[in-house]
Amino acid sequence: MNKKSFTHCFSLIAAILFALSTIQAAPLPAAAQGGTEEGSTIVTVNEWLVLGPIATPLPAYNDEGPKKIEPTYMLESDLMDISSCKPASGKKVYVPAVGFVQWIKKGAKKGKVSLVFDKGPVQTAYLAAYVEAPRWLKVKIAAQSIIPFAVFVDGEKTIESPKPGKEGSDSAKEVALEQGSHSLIVKVVCQPSDTIATADFKLTLESTEGNAKPFVTTKLERYLSLGDILNLPKTAGVTISPDGKMIALTMSFQPKEKESPDRWLEIRRTTDAKLLASIKDIEGLRGVKWAPVGRRLSYVTSSKGKSTINLYDFETGATTSILKDKKDLNDYVWSPKGDCIVYSITEKPKKENENVKRLRSISDRWSYGRMRSYLYIASVPGGLTRRLTAGKYSTNLLNVRPDGKAILFTRSYEDLSERPYGKTELVEMDLGSDRINLLWKGHW
Q1: Nearest-CA neighbor of 268 among 285, 288, 244?
Q2: Distance from CA of residue 439 to its chain's centroid?
Q3: Cβ distance 141 to 203 under 8 Å?
Q4: How far apart are CA 68 and CA 74, in angstroms?
Q5: Residue 18: predicted pLDDT
Q6: Is the pLDDT of residue 115 over 70?
Q7: What is the pLDDT of residues 61-106, one digit of tens each?
Q8: Which of 197, 223, 249 is the last residue of a domain?
Q9: Which of 126, 123, 82 has its CA nearest to residue 103?
Q10: What is the model's pLDDT at position 139?
């Protein structure tokens, strides 16, 4: 390609890109736009998903208490978990003592959606929509109605108007929206009377971010966000049963509202990945292992610095504990016969003067230099325990002999006489007599 042709192609591409950049995306049908001042855009919600009104009577004997519960109490009550709610047109929600109630699509004339309440007890209704932010931006949300209401953005209460107000009075608040889709749910409460049988609700979103305008829709569809790709349930561990017919998956998921991830167990069939069992709400899950005999699965749970080794039996569906509330429990290994486990406990040194410390060796400079790990054995079932090792140095379990009568472990310690300044002992211990046999000693 000569220089003239290259220049012509470059000019053509630049012209196409400039034309595309001038095309503005059309607003979604659930919202209408209007300007107030230069650089400001107001989006009025013209279509909602509506659930209800639902009869929500006040508690019985309400008149007997020292403080009478008002209808606005329903704004605080948890009739529905708004934080996890994903409304969609036609989706049904079961309400106790009422039955199934369906989300329906309803238009709002000039931004006002009209709600009709039956005569009778206090009633609650929900309005829902989704706000799509093209990038990070700040939006001022303004709402108005003559009946009490609360506005939730992504499950968080943003605006609350607990007292009936006059038509035209606004309740407003500015919120920051990240790029992507955000749920917008409104909870309204009404006690029908001779003067109030219908009520209007209006909500607008005002953006001062120039061309970055939020769009509102009633469709649950949205673009993938970075969180959808990165924040997915992850497989943190995999272990296959001795017969090869089942697989235990340690699953992990990090919710936005929590500092630590949720962990749970899924047991699936290896031939078709069918879910056979799921164990959830496990605090500090780790150490998932199959017992060598029977359809049994063991795992460790930890809470407040103490650990418990649990055993789940697929035949009975029962979960029992092998060891309970062991402090500083490390790892454990099953005996090949499945009649016991060998586990290790870390012993920490007593706290000394923080300002002065006598160094016993080079490794003593580290904060963990004086920690020691020792081995124990526990029977299954029963949980009868016995200590196997002690001494000056830590013992690290390698394996249990196939007949279950001996274990293999190592001891490592500092030796400054020659490089690499450390030695390791490979030791076999007879579990019946605790007799030890030094198999090898040298640089590991």
Answers
A1: 244
A2: 49
A3: yes
A4: 13
A5: 45
A6: yes
A7: 877 777 777 777 778 877 888 888 899 999 999 988 888 999 999 9
A8: 223
A9: 126
A10: 92
Rounded Cα distance between 404 and 250, Å, is 28
pLDDT for residue 31: 57
| Pair (264, 386) in one structural domain | no
Question: Which structure tokens are listed for 301?
Answer: 């749970």
Average pLDDT over residues 280-309: 93
Distance from C-alpha of 321 to C-alpha of 299, rounded to nearest angstrom: 10
| Maximum Cα interatomic distance, the chain, rounded to a whole number of Å | 98
Cα separations in angstroms, 224 against 27, 93, 221: 19, 26, 9
Most confident of 73-87, 217-231, 383-397: 383-397
Strand partners, 133: 180
How far is Cα 134 from Cα 156, in angstroms, rounded to an integer? 21
Statement to judge: residues 210 and 243 lie in one domain: no
Are 287 and 300 a contacting pair, CB within 8 Å? yes
Whether 15 maps to a domain, the answer reads: no
Same domain, 320 and 332: no
Segment 363-373, tens digit of pLDDT: 877 777 788 99
Q: Global pTM?
A: 0.66
HEC string of 279-341 equals ECCCCCCEEEEECCCCCEEEEEEEECCEEEEEEEECCCCCEEEEEEEEECEEEEEECCCCCEE
Q: What is the DSSP-derived secondary structure letter of residue 382?
A: T
Query: Could you tell me the two tokens for 294?
Result: 């029977």
pLDDT band per the 50, 70, 90 thresholds, residue 21: very low
Range of the domain at 321: 231-326
